[in-house]
C-alpha cells in the first residue's frame, strides 16, 4: 500500500519507514522536520498541505505518529498541542474518509492513562500497583499531552462509528532513547532496563506493532491496544510489587540481583504500575520480542543491551529550531 507516515523524521518514524518498505509498502513521509524518510516537510495541522499530500501522492492508508509529546510540554504552549495533536489528527481522518480509505493507525500513548493519583503511587495512598489494561477508567490524563492524545483517540473512535474507517489506536509505552526527564536517581540504562518489567518496549517492537496493526486493521477496526513488553507478573502480585518489588522480581528471575549487582544497577524498590499488553496479543496477534528476560540474557552474556539508550537524542524538530536560530 502507499502509506502516509507522519512523524517520518522522528525516532519511531526512522524505524518504521524501512520496516514498512521491507514489507513491500510505499512510504510517503510527512514531518515538520526534514529527514531521510520525509518527502513532505510541513505540519499535519495545515489542512491544505494534508489534502495536497493525499491528492498528489495517491495515499491509500495513514500511520499517524507525528505529534508533540511529553518533553514538548516544557517547550510549547497548550494551543500548539491542540493544533498538532487534535486538529492534525482531525485533518488526517477527514482526508482519509474523503479518499475512501479503509484503515487508519494512530500512535497513542499509555501516558494518557496516568492520573495524578496513579502517578503519586504509594505516597498518594495506593496499596497496590495499578494494573492497567484497555478497560481501565475513568481516564483522567494529567497533562496537555495526555488530554490531546485522548481527544485524538476519541476522534479515531468517532470516525470509526460514523464512517466505518477501521481506526486502530496504539497506546504505546516508553521507547524513547534519551534520558528520563523526571527520574535521575539511577543511570539511564538501569532505568530503562527496569522499565521492561512493566512499561517499556523497544522502538523496533513499536515499529513492528504499527506494521501488524496496518495489516490487521480492517478486521479489528475501532480498537485500542496497549503496547508494552509482556510483564512477567500476575495481577495477584500487584500489592507486593508496590511494597517490595525486588523480592517479586527475584522470585521470577533468581539471577537478576546478581546480574544487576555486577553492573552496579539496582532493581526498582517499588513498582506502581504495570501495563498489560495481552489484548494486542489476543486480538492482533502482536507480542513484543524483547522483554525483561532478554535484558537479563544480555547482562549474563555481557552482550550489548537489547534496547537503545542515547542521552544525546533530540527530536528533529528541535534541531530544526536550533538550525534556524
Ligand atoms: N517516545 C516514546 O517513548 C513514546 C511513548 C509513547 C508514545 N509515543 C508517541 O510516539 C510518536 C512518535 O514519537 P517519537 O518518540 O518518535 O518522537 P519524535 O519527536 O522523535 O518524533 C515525532 C515526530 O513528529 C514530528 N512532528 C511534530 N509535530 C508535527 C507536525 N505538526 N506535523 C508533522 N510532524 C510533526 C516531529 O518533527 C518528529 O519528527 C508520538 O506520537 C508520541 O506521542 C512516544
Oligomeric status? single chain
End-to-end separation: 39 Å
Please write the CATH class name: Alpha Beta
- The H-level CATH homologous superfamily, spelled out, is NAD(P)-binding Rossmann-like Domain
Q: Spatial order of the strands in the main sheet?
A: 3-2-1-4-5-7-8
How many domains?
1
Flag low-confidence runs. none
Q: What's the average pLDDT?
A: 96
Shape: globular
Which range does the strand content fall in?
5-15%
Small-molecule components bound? nicotinamide-adenine-dinucleotide
Number of helices: 12
Structural class by helix and strand composition:
alpha/beta
CATH topology: Rossmann fold
CATH architecture title = 3-Layer(aba) Sandwich
Please provide the count of β strands.
9
Order of helices and strands: EHEEHEHEHEHEHHEHHEHHH
Helical content class: 40-55%
- What is the makeup of the main sheet? 7 strands, parallel
Structural write-up:
This protein has 325 residues and is an alpha/beta fold. Strand 4 (61-64), helix 3 and strand 5 form a beta-alpha-beta unit. It has one domain (2-324): 3-Layer(aba) Sandwich (Rossmann fold), CATH 3.40.50. The mean pLDDT is 96. The protein has a 7-stranded parallel sheet, with helices on both faces. It has a two-stranded parallel ribbon with strand order 6-9. Helices cover 44% and strands 13% of the residues. The radius of gyration is 20 Å and the shape is globular. The structure holds nicotinamide-adenine-dinucleotide (NAD). Nicotinamide-adenine-dinucleotide binds next to helix 1, strand 2, helix 3, strand 5 and helix 12.
Q: In terms of topology, how is this protein built?
A:
Layout lengths: L1 E5 L4 H12 L3 E6 L8 E2 L5 H11 L3 E4 L13 H21 L4 E7 L6 H5 L9 E3 L11 H20 L2 E7 L15 H8 L7 H18 L2 E5 L10 H15 L3 H8 L9 E3 L2 H7 L7 H10 L14 H9 L1
Parallel strand pairs: 1-2, 1-4, 2-3, 4-5, 5-7, 6-9, 7-8
Helix pairs in contact: 1-7, 2-3, 3-5
Nicotinamide-adenine-dinucleotide (NAD) binds next to helix 1, strand 2, helix 3, strand 5 and helix 12.
